[in-house]
């Protein structure tokens, strides 16, 4: 059960007016150019792609109010922080767009897979495999829709990363069970379990259906990609924290490092405004 609180702009204003400046940390997770264009006074700026490496700059026992442009990246950041032990986290619904009075969407909580902490190593790997498959499909679809060669190459590169992750996950699976399924059986089981968990839909597709128009342009697509990569990273880090199998922990740590690298790639592309 998530402990992240959702704040509307009005609630956030009352919260900020009622508390002393040092009673909470206002965290802006947008890119540098977005922050330079406009930001809330006193905000600490840590772009989402940099957050995993700069998390030590934040007090895990303090109160956080996180925001971005529309509420999606900030929700991904909030979940990442929650997974690392932060408890008092608030997400600004609608982000800067809603704060400035523009029409905005509701809480953008993207769900790929749930992690309870009770999963066996094999179950962790099955869930991770299904998640990587969903990301790979998403990137291939975005490549098909891209209008520039740069974007096509970016999304096919990311799709290739997910393919390598799937290979790694299956290889690890064969080492943590006595009688492993074949690769085809493993994939079929992973995808069937995911379909049952989300009642038959691909979460990314459902998310896009829920927020039509929010991620249409290049920046929007890259922002959504950063959200899904942040959730993949969050999943691996949560598994690392709770896993009792050292071999599993090591591989999950490798996957987490690779997800951090993916986030940085996306951050660089988000900074290339045309």
Automatic annotation (TrEMBL):
Residue ranges annotated for the Rhodanese domain, each copy included: 20-104
- Signal peptide bounds: none
Xref: SMART domains: RHOD (SM00450)
User: What would be one Pfam family of this protein?
Assistant: Rhodanese
Name one molecular function that GO assigns to this entry: thiosulfate-cyanide sulfurtransferase activity
Q: What is this protein called in UniProt?
A: Sulfurtransferase
User: Native species of this protein?
Assistant: Pseudodesulfovibrio indicus
């Amino acid at each position: 059960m998530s402990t992240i609180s959702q704040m509307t702009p009005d609630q956030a204003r009352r919260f900020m007016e009622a508390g002393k400046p040092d009673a909470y940390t206002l965290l802006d997770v947008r890119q540098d150019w977005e922050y330079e264009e406009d930001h809330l006074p006193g905000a600490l700026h840590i772009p989402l792609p940099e957050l995993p490496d700069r998390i030590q700059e934040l007090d895990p026992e303090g109160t956080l109010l996180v925001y971005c442009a529309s509420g999606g990246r900030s929700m991904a950041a909030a979940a990442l922080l929650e997974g690392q032990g932060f408890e008092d986290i608030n997400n600004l619904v609608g982000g800067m767009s809603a704060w400035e009075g523009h029409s905005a969407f509701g809480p953008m909580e993207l769900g790929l897979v749930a992690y309870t902490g009770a999963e066996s190593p094999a179950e962790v790997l099955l869930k991770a495999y299904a998640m990587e498959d969903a990301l790979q499909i998403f990137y291939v679809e975005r490549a098909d829709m891209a209008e520039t060669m740069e974007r096509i190459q970016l999304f096919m590169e990311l799709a290739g990363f997910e393919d390598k992750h799937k290979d790694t996950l299956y290889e690890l699976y064969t080492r943590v069970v006595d009688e492993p399924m074949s690769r085809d059986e493993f994939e079929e089981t992973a995808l069937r379990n995911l379909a049952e968990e989300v009642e038959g839909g691909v979460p990314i597709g459902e998310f896009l259906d829920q927020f039509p128009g929010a991620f249409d342009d290049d920046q929007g697509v890259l922002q959504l990609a950063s959200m899904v990569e942040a959730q993949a990273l969050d999943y691996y880090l949560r598994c690392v924290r709770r896993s009792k199998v050292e071999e599993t922990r090591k591989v999950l740590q490798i996957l987490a490092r690779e997800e951090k690298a993916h986030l940085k790639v996306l951050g660089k592309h988000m900074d290339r405004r045309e």
